[in-house]
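Priority: medium. Attachment 1 of 2:
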């Protein structure tokens, strides 16, 4: 049952704005944390809002090792302070592409991170983890014990962005065949055609595009990719669609990391008319003329309320 006062909503430092938006949409109350750093880089954190026997939500992404430990430490502290039920909202789950070992000795970091979060003490009424648009659905099975993972689809947000950019007549595309099933499902929902590129792996480990699966000549193409890091795969796919005759190309992503100068390089390619990302990762919050950002906070708040937070 949802608390009459609404949940207490806390956040890691990088997700304060997201937590505020979720709190306002869900009718929650802001929780406060005192923070300071010691000269050697160690952190002091104190939960300054009493949370004994309260519904508690903690918003934070595992965007770096430091952010992961901040999320973990705060979650443990909130349970120790008496949270009746703890819900972690993780808009971006790092290392999601390291979901399996492809070579002997490789560490499956997605699994070790899930195990770490699974070791958070269990709150009296349980501990849940809400995860947004995981790279692989099966990552939820890496969580162990009493932690209950919930995979939230960002499609209401990203699908709306695709339709906004594409209008009534476009081809929905992806960067490789690995995402074809997901993109095909969205294309069917939107009533449009789907395309993907064929790739081959070179001797140096890099890949090159060898072809396009669908007829795109004279068509507007909207590319969906769940995550953009450097943008190199996106740029290569876009160039292939352009060379195949697409009249215009835009892209939509859930997780816009945009590492380094990725946005500048994508803009300099001259291929894209627009990029849309959600605010699941702070990397998308740097202003850039090519990029617009759609918030997933209302979606996450709605899912929390449906789940009784």
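Attachment 2 of 2:
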């Amino acid at each position: 049952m949802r608390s009459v006062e609404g949940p207490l909503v806390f956040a890691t430092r990088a997700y304060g704005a997201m937590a505020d938006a979720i709190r306002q949409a869900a009718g929650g109350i802001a929780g406060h944390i005192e923070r300071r750093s010691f000269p050697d880089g160690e952190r002091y954190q104190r939960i300054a809002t009493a949370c004994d026997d309260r519904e508690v939500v903690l918003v934070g992404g595992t965007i770096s090792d430091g952010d992961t430990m901040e999320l973990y430490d705060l979650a443990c502290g909130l349970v120790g302070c008496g949270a009746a039920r703890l819900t972690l909202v993780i808009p971006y789950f790092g290392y999601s592409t390291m979901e399996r070992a492809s070579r002997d000795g490789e560490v499956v970091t997605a699994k070790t991170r899930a195990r770490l979060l699974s070791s958070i003490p269990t709150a009296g009424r349980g501990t849940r983890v809400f995860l947004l648009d995981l790279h692989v659905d099966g990552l939820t099975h890496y969580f162990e014990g009493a932690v209950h993972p919930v995979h939230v689809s960002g499609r209401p947000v990203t699908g709306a962005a695709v339709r906004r950019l594409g209008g009534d007549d476009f081809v929905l595309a992806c960067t490789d065949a690995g995402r074809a099933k997901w993109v095909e499902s969205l294309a069917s929902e939107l009533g449009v055609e789907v395309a993907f590129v064929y790739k081959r792996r070179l001797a140096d480990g890099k890949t090159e595009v060898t072809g396009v699966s669908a007829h795109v000549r004279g068509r507007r193409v909207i590319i969906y990719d769940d995550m953009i890091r450097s943008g190199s795969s996106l740029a290569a796919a876009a160039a292939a669609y352009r060379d195949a005759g697409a009249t215009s190309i835009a892209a939509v992503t859930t997780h816009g990391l945009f590492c380094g100068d990725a946005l500048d390089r994508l803009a300099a390619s001259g291929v894209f008319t627009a990029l849309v990302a959600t605010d699941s990762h702070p990397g998308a919050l740097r202003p850039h003329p090519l990029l617009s950002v759609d918030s997933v906070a209302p979606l996450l708040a709605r899912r929390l309320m449906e789940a009784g937070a």
